[in-house]
Specification:
Shape of chain B: globular
Number of strands of chain A: 21
Number of helices of chain A: 18
Mean pLDDT of chain A: 95
Distance between the termini of chain A: 26 Å
Helix content of chain A: 25-40%
Radius of gyration of chain A: 26 Å
Structural class of chain A: alpha/beta
Strand order of the largest sheet of chain B: 2-1-3-4-6-5-9
Mean pLDDT of chain B: 96
Helix content of chain B: 25-40%
Low-confidence stretches of chain B: none
Order of helices and strands of chain B: HEEHEHHEHEHEHEHEE
Largest sheet of chain A: 8 strands, mixed
Oligomer: heterodimer
Radius of gyration of chain B: 20 Å
Bound molecules: thiamine diphosphate, iron/sulfur cluster
Number of strands of chain B: 9
Structural class of chain B: alpha/beta
Strand content of chain A: 15-25%
Largest sheet of chain B: 7 strands, mixed
Strand order of the largest sheet of chain A: 6-5-4-1-3-2-14-7
Chain lengths: ~575, ~280
């Protein structure tokens, strides 16, 4: 992370407009040249429930929230107390509340944070059509040192469609907020940033996932809506037709995965996106894709489970089902992006791998990463494009062997329309030509082949993101969105003189024992960090890899995020 | 036909693979397989441009017995595989084959939505009113008082499902019934079904001689339906509701709702989409 950051929360009940104000703030900060990371939290209501936007701004790219927020602004306090655990405050924090909107919830008061009154509603009333959220926005902007000219530009651009009067009202309310907060206690002010250019993006993890799919060559998507994966689909629905693809809303997840199996069998790289409950429904057909060797990519934006769990909150607890959920022996790929930005790379790589290896790839992202918006450097183009091995010309009289037992394990795949290569793709066990077979020898040979193509493939260095000290004696092992706070913890630990490295595993399955052992050379102790109740990642590592003798695990369920400070504390207290 | 007579290159044999069916001797599915290959020959479709998709069941074994492209998937999910294939590859002729259990029980939801979505598929259901492959249990189309299954020794006790009426209500545009005892007629109906744009449902009464030997009598019980093809859904509904299931050999309903085929026509480069994110 590096650089300076400031962390703030805006919260309020439905209609208070905190998400709107938060988005405006993010946009303005981005234009001012700062980097940003914003997550949202909402209650279970469909519309109008309480909401909070958590924003961290900084002079360098940001991938995690801080341990505490500097500033909490409650436009009103109705039900906001429910979020208390997600909004850690300290004695050095400030709470701004509207005295006309009730008492600050006791859970926040207990933090010892200093409280300041700002009559947002009353101030909003002093300007025609003024709204309290804009007053709050003004107060925050003034306190953190966001200049008015940038903010006014954002207001004009985003409110254009609402007309001049709406813009004027917002500006007036905004100014009232700036003025009222002029002599409030200080929160960190960021130094001026480098003005943003098109080399900087504002993107959510779910959008990055969609973009990665398109870059990888996906042109057919079928899916069934589920929070928090729906936004991947909402981004893809209008984007796909522009590049010559289509998206179908299927009748359920059983249909969506089978539709993409059909599309991919037809030669078009295909993908679906879902969340845990949908992934559970798809597991039988994942086995089909593996056995029939049809490349497909399934994005699982994890949320709290089991069953329908908590739809709007994050957890990393679908690891077991993704790795072990399939019936029979079904070697397949499981990958996990390590940041919002990496959602793009990992999804693109997953498409490339699925196509190259003709198998199913599951990509595990989560709500926290998927719905987070980051202002980040533009993602560099990489050359991974879905590429399937096509069969060579056949000699006369020779029957095409779709499931030929090749040395690499990859059998050249014909697609319908190619004359002379007709075959039946089969989920039943089969021989090399695809004819169903119940013979042990065919089963053994095909299982060997389906495993061999995955284990014999060279995944290069992408299997993990490794950062920190080469000669570290301590390693943090993590995956997915927990890699963000782990990265920040790593920096703090190194700044304090510790020799530490971070291994964020991107290729969960198949395992990479040699590379893993290499990465752990010289490491004496390992802290495993994840967001699951039972420590699924820790157990997986123990089952699959040799770990150093000293291992500690830091794991807790969602929806509370892993914080960098907790990781630092685990390591510094380990002596 | 005009002067420029098309040369008949393909015969039914060209669509048949050399894999030997595992079906019981006398199973109705043999003649459905023969009818499918005959229909493809009538239409002179190049084998590489045809795909047959199925789920699981005796009847779902058809793809391996043809020499066109085939996809043999999991139980009940043939229709979504075929839907994805046809949408991704509109240039192909896509047939779906399977049984009453596969289509109306485990695959019931897909059946409803395939009728409704109206993708250009031809769905051939070999209805033997039993689960053949799992050795004789009641299927959705089994009569409520059939006591032949160890799973339901006192009979299923629930009304049988009426696939054609349901298909009509769900929006299917081509509904036909035929009997495997008349393979020429089955071939003719399948030919019409393939020609029909959009989703076509062909129910073939196809006896399971092993678990329901009494169905061998079907060949004497069926009768050619004395109806004209109608495009009037209300009339078709009355017809389908009142018939006893043995009126065969005809297209019973044919509408003209346009087929669903989302077009993939954009030609932008992926990099053009980056503007969405640039500050
Ligand atoms: C998920 C799943 N459940 C159950 C089965 C077992 N099974 C195989 S075939 C079949 C029924 C087939 O009956 P039908 O579709 O009527 O075809 P038939 O064999 O009569 O042609 C069943 C239940 C399965 N393969 N998969
Ligand atoms: S069990 Fe019945 S349906 Fe299956 S092959 Fe034998 S006769 Fe045909």
């Amino acid at each position: 992370m590096g650089g300076q950051t400031v962390s703030l929360v805006m919260a309020g009940s439905g209609g208070a407009g905190v998400v709107t104000a938060g988005s405006l703030l993010l946009e303005a900060a981005a234009r001012a040249g700062w980097y940003a990371y914003m997550t949202r939290s909402s209650g279970p209501q469909i519309r109008g429930g309480e909401a909070a936007v958590m924003i961290r701004l900084g002079t360098e790219p940001i991938a995690s929230h801080d341990d505490r927020f500097h500033l909490l602004v409650g436009v009103d306090w109705q039900n906001v107390g429910r979020f208390a655990a997600e909004i850690p405050l300290g004695a050095e924090s400030l709470i701004i509340g509207d005295p006309g909107e009730g008492e600050t919830p006791e859970v926040f008061v207990r933090s010892g944070a200093q409280q300041i009154a700002l009559p947002m509603k009353a101030l909003a009333k002093t300007v025609p059509d003024g709204r309290p959220n804009m007053v709050a926005f003004g107060a925050i902007a003034g306190m953190i040192g966001l200049t008015e000219d940038v903010v006014l530009g954002v207001l004009r651009d985003t409110l254009k469609r609402k007309g001049e009067e709406a813009i004027a009202a917002s500006i007036a309310a905004f100014r009232a907020g700036v003025e009222a907060a002029a002599d409030f206690p200080a929160v960190p002010r960021l130094p001026a940033g480098t003005p943003a250019t098109s080399e900087r993006w504002s993107i959510t993890g779910n959008e990055a996932t969609g973009m990665g799919a398109l870059r990888g060559g996906v042109r057919f998507v079928a899916a069934y809506p589920i929070t928090p994966a729906t936004e991947v689909l909402e981004w893809l629905a209008p984007a796909l037709p522009k590049v010559g693809g289509v998206l179908v809303q299927a009748e359920d997840e059983l249909a969506s995965i089978n539709q993409i199996i059909g599309g991919s069998y037809g030669g078009v790289p295909s993908l679906t996106a879902t969340s845990g409950p949908g992934l559970a429904l798809m597991t039988e057909s994942l086995g089909l894709a593996v056995a029939a060797e049809v490349p497909i990519v399934v994005i699982d934006v994890m949320r709290v489970g089991p069953s329908t769990g908590i739809a709007t909150k994050s957890e990393q607890a679908d690891l077991n089902i993704a790795v072990y959920g399939l019936h029979g022996d079904a070697p397949h790929l499981v990958l996990a992006p390590t940041s919002v930005a990496d959602c793009l790379f990992t999804t693109q790589w997953a498409v490339h791998l699925a196509e190259s290896l003709q198998t199913a790839a599951i990509v595990l992202t989560d709500q926290a990463m998927g719905q987070a918006r980051a202002v980040m450097p533009r993602s560099a183009a990489v050359s991974f494009i879905g590429q399937r091995e096509k069969p060579a010309a056949l000699e006369a009289g020779v029957h095409y062997k779709r499931y030929a037992n090749t040395a690499s394990g990859v059998s050249p795949m014909a697609i319908p329309g190619m004359a002379g290569y007709t075959y039946t793709a089969d989920g039943l066990e089969h021989n090399e030509t695809g004819t169903p077979s119940s013979q042990a020898s065919d089963h053994q040979a095909q299982l060997d082949k389906r495993l061999r193509k995955l284990t014999g493939y060279n995944y290069g260095d992408h299997w993990a993101d490794i950062t920190g000290d080469e000669d570290a004696d301590t390693a943090i092992l993590t995956w997915g969105s927990s890699a963000g706070p782990a990265r920040e913890a790593l920096e703090r630990l190194r700044a304090a003189g510790q020799r530490v490295k971070l291994i964020a595993v991107r290729l969960i399955s198949p395992v990479q024992p040699e590379k893993f052992a290499n990465a752990l050379k010289g490491v004496e102790r390992v802290l495993v960090v994840e967001q699951s109740h039972s420590g699924q990642f820790h157990r997986y590592l123990r089952a699959q890899y040799d770990l150093p003798r000293q291992v500690k695990a830091l794991h807790h369920p969602g929806p509370l995020a892993v914080r960098p400070g907790a990781i630092v504390e685990h390591i510094t207290q380990w002596s | 036909m005009d002067a420029c007579v098309q040369q008949r290159d393909y015969t039914a044999k060209d669509y048949k693979s050399d894999v030997k069916p595992i079906w019981c001797p006398g199973c109705g599915d043999y003649s459905v397989l023969a009818a499918i290959t005959r229909a493809l020959a009538t239409l002179q479709l190049a084998p590489e441009n045809v795909a047959v998709v199925s789920g699981i069941g005796c009847s779902s074994r058809i793809p391996a017995y043809t020499s066109v492209y085939g996809f043999h998937g999991v139980h009940g999910r043939a229709l979504p595989v075929a839907t994805g294939l046809k949408i991704a590859r509109p240039d192909l002729t896509v047939l779906v084959t399977g049984g009453d259990g596969d289509g109306f029980s485990i695959g019931g939801n897909h059946f409803l939505h395939a009728c409704r979505r109206n993708v250009d598929l031809t769905y051939i259901v070999m209805d033997n009113q039993v689960y053949g492959m799992t050795k004789g249990q009641a299927s959705p189309t089994t009569e409520p008082d059939w006591e032949g299954s160890k799973l339901t020794p006192d009979g299923a006790g629930i009304e049988s499902f009426h696939p054609l009426v349901v298909a009509l209500a769900a929006g299917a545009n081509f509904i036909a019934r035929c009997s495997s005892s008349d393979p020429n007629n089955v071939a003719d109906i399948i030919t019409q079904a393939i020609r029909h744009p959009g989703f076509s449902l062909v129910q073939v009464l196809s006896p399971c001689v092993t678990f329901r030997p009494e169905q061998q009598e079907w060949k004497h019980m069926v009768r050619t339906a004395v109806v004209d093809v109608t495009d009037d859904a209300a009339r078709a509904a009355r017809r389908l509701m009142t018939d006893d299931g043995f009126n065969v050999g005809k297209v019973l309903y044919k509408g003209d709702r346009p087929a669903y085929q989302p077009e993939a026509k954009g030609a932008a480069a992926v990099a053009d989409l980056e503007a969405d994110f640039a500050l």
